[in-house]
């Protein structure tokens, strides 16, 4: 099983959106038995909470299930459990390095570094623009799936 972890600051907006969208993609591609997906936060503020209402609305808009999405904190041992640890922005990446104790490890990737633009996925908690976040996460998730297919022969 290939294990993928999406990480953002609070695990209520971007990373659960990416988790749900990536699950949706792998289900459509009949890869659910080969790829497992989770998400986590670098901060403890929203642990145990469901996704932000804006994330839930955008997922519903695209008919993507939000079942089972509950905020949790990234743990040091997640480094060993996951094959791909995907941060949403540079700050997330730095915090992932700090929490896992594995700076600059190639399995830790900023989502949009997998695309041509390499920008940060803006946090809609602050911008209010869940549509833009969804668009960027969609592009990044497709690029991640392509990377996994290429590297893992799935």
From TrEMBL:
Enzymatic class: hydrolase
Top-level taxonomic group: Bacteria
E.C. numbers: 3.1.3.48
Sorted UniProt keywords: Hydrolase, Protein phosphatase
Active site: 8, 14, 123
All copies of domain Phosphotyrosine protein phosphatase I, residue ranges: 2-147
Reaction catalysed by this enzyme: O-phospho-L-tyrosyl-[protein] + H2O = L-tyrosyl-[protein] + phosphate
GO molecular function: protein tyrosine phosphatase activity
Pfam hit, one: LMWPc
Family: Belongs to the low molecular weight phosphotyrosine protein phosphatase family.
PANTHER family linked to this entry: LOW MOLECULAR WEIGHT PHOSPHOTYROSINE PROTEIN PHOSPHATASE, LOW MOLECULAR WEIGHT PROTEIN TYROSINE PHOSPHATASE
Stated name of the protein: protein-tyrosine-phosphatase
């Amino acid at each position: 099983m290939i294990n993928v972890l999406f990480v953002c600051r609070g695990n209520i907006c971007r990373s659960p959106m990416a988790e749900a969208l990536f699950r949706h993609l792998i289900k459509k591609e009949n890869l659910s038995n080969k790829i497992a997906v989770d998400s986590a936060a670098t901060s403890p503020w929203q642990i145990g909470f469901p996704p932000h209402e804006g994330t839930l609305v955008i997922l519903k808009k695209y008919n993507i299930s939000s079942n089972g999405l509950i905020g949790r904190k990234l743990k040091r041992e997640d480094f060993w459990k996951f094959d791909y640890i995907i941060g949403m922005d540079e700050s997330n990446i730095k915090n992932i390095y700090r929490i896992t104790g594995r700076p600059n490890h190639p399995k830790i990737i900023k989502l949009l570094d997998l695309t041509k633009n390499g920008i940060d996925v803006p946090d809609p908690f602050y911008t209010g623009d869940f549509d833009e976040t969804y668009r960027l996460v969609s592009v990044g998730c497709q690029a991640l799936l392509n990377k996994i297919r290429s590297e893992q022969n799935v």
